[in-house]
Amino acid sequence: MKARIAVLGGDGIGPEVTAEAVRVLAAIATRYGHEFEFVAALVGGAAIDASGSPLPPRTIDACRTSDAILLGAVGGPQWSDPSARVRPEQGLLDLRRTLGLFANLRPVRTIPEMLEASPLKPEVIRGVDIMVVRELTGGIYFGRKSRTAHEAEDVCSYTATEIERVTRVAGRLALARRKRIVSVDKANVLETSRLWRAVVERVLGEEFPSVELEHMLVDAAAMHLIKRPTSFDVLLTENMFGDILTDEASMLAGSLGLLPSASLGEGSVGLYEPIHGSAPDIAGQGIANPFGTILSAAMLLRHSLGLEAEAIAVEDAVTAALASGVRTADIAQPGSAAVGSRAAGDAVLAAISSSSFKL
After folding, report:
1. Of 32, 141, 154, 179, which residue is the catalytic one?
2. What's the pLDDT tens digit per position in 300-312?
3. pLDDT above 80 (res 355)
4. Are residues 84 and 196 in the same domain?
5. Which domain holds residue 149?
6. Most-buried pick from 40, 112, 187, 291 (CB within 10 A)?
7. Is-catalytic flag, 316?
8. Exposed, middle or buried: residue 193 (CB in 10 Å: 0-12, 13-18, 19+)?
9. Is residue 113 part of a domain?
10. Which of 129, 154, 243, 316 is the catalytic position?
11. CA torsion, ordered 306, 310, 311, 316, to nearest 10 deg
12. Is residue 26 part of a domain?
């Protein structure tokens, strides 16, 4: 297979972790007979510094002409002025909107060898396997905004169409898993959540009758993610709730640095990125955890390129690296040795090289 992949390193540790994911993708291409072309482009604060825009036209063109997009992270203290006309995060939001990427997939799985990295008890988190489906282009992040010296407004709005399409994504995923969806809302207070609940019920009832549906208020969901996380299969929710809950769920796996994500639309082109931020406090030190970005590259292989076996090969290699004791600073036990980003990537490459897996 030939594929063009846009690589948007972004800010902070973004270029460091995407570099490791690109190395892994290149190794997969070499081992399994594919040809991947990597096209670098700017986004976020780096793009503001270079062009004045967090999402320059050249970056949009690179993404539109690629089969998939790999992104690191955006933001940093030098661009954090709330009154600034342009901010790095606008580039990411505009990219999602421009490409019509409305469904954010965030898998949360625990690895037996990593149970000690979580602050929760091993018996609580053992066997966790959750797929969070977060609506990505509606809600309060994209609603009308205004502010004066004495008042501010952020409008949360959803249409039935927006809810229908993300529910179908969750339904299809549930059919391939344990056929259970927990839909998270705040229907006891919010009109948008009441619409959300009604539309989710209708779509799943009409199109996915074999999928079991449970509604759960977002505050209860936050509690049960910690109390009984193994009870969740597919978790479907709106934009802001999903953003918050998946950061909480990262503690089940042990670190934000371990969790990947995929942002998908109606076509095959997707945006793949770790769920962590740009971590400017450790940028440039070579110690960032690249595993979440490498696992995002596995999702890229699966969802945009249709290379399921290769995606599994990458996921297995990450698991093998972690099982062998490779730990970056964020997941190392107190007093244990930690490796840098490059060494973590080397461990994944070694696992791919030594694997007996053949296509």
Report:
1. 141
2. 999 999 999 999 9
3. no
4. no
5. 119-253
6. 291
7. no
8. buried
9. no
10. 243
11. 160
12. yes
